[in-house]
UniProtKB/TrEMBL annotation:
Protein name: Histidinol-phosphatase
Catalyzed reaction equations: L-histidinol phosphate + H2O = L-histidinol + phosphate
Protein EC: 3.1.3.15
Originating organism: Thiovibrio frasassiensis
Molecular function terms, GO-annotated: histidinol-phosphatase activity
Amino-acid biosynthesis listed as a keyword: yes
Length: 251
């Protein structure tokens, strides 16, 4: 696989409210594992109505940027430290998302779509929790998956993202999840749009923990490669010890 396994381009910290560990702990873990590059990719969500915040507040982003600059000064001679953002796409909040992205310089802008709206409420499509899975299942698994891919395609077109994250993680914990021929065509359209923008596809190794295979699955990866979409590696670490996890399987 044509991918740089000396770079972990997707890690989170306690700042996102659902991970643990300080930024400096992640940097030290990356250095100890021989990585040459570590990119923090903290969560941005706009206008999401959900029981808990799994993303950074505006105040958190100030702390994040300040600490990132400090760590660059301390460790910059040993590893490149990137300050990035994982943008959760909300079709109703495009102007707010674009305005926020202009506030800071970003080394990477990741794109994801976590929260699906049903009658004014948002549900997390990558969650294993019953209060997410039941409403999404009742809404229709095939419909949610189709909407997920069509919304990602829209996001690729409208946002200045550089990397698409965990492409096929939608409803990963639902027993009925299955991609049909129409979904495969949607994925192909996403790849074509990404290629036109020079956007990379993330090979997310958290999948090895969740399902024994990276995100996205091998056939989807092979199609991306065939279409000329570049690949980057990301552990999606939520604890310092997860930095660079399973990268040896990407060779």
């Amino acid at each position: 696989m044509l991918i740089n396994t000396k770079s972990d381009g997707h890690v989170h910290t306690r700042l996102c409210h659902h991970a643990s560990g300080e930024m400096e702990e992640y940097v030290r873990a990356a250095i100890s594992k021989g990585l040459e590059e570590l990119i923090f990719l903290e969560h941005l969500e706009c206008g999401i109505h959900y029981p808990e915040d799994t993303w950074l507040s505006e105040e958190d982003f100030v702390v994040y940027q300040r600490e990132g600059q400090r760590l660059r000064q301390v460790y910059g001679d040993r590893i490149f430290i990137g300050i990035g953002v994982e943008v959760g796409y909300n079709p109703k909040q495009v102007p707010a998302i674009l305005d926020f992205l202009k506030q800071y310089p970003w080394d990477r802008v990741g794109l994801s779509f976590h929260y699906y709206e049903i009658k004014g409420h948002h549900y997390n499509v990558v969650s294993r929790r019953k209060f997410n899975l039941e409403p999404l299942g009742k809404h229709g698994v095939e419909r949610v998956i189709s909407d997920y891919f069509s919304t990602l395609l829209e996001a690729v077109s409208l946002l200045p993202a550089t990397v698409l994250c965990h492409l096929d993680a939608v409803l990963r914990h639902h027993p009925e999840v299955q991609f049909n021929a129409a979904h495969q065509r949607q994925i192909r359209e996403i790849f074509q749009a990404m290629r036109e923008k020079g956007m990379a596809l993330e090979v997310n190794t958290s999948g090895f923990s969740h399902r024994g295979e990276q995100y996205p699955a091998q056939p989807i990866l092979e199609e991306a490669i065939a279409l000329g979409v570049p690949l980057v590696a990301g552990s999606d670490a939520h604890r310092p010890g997860e930095v660079g996890r399973f990268f040896e399987r990407l060779g």
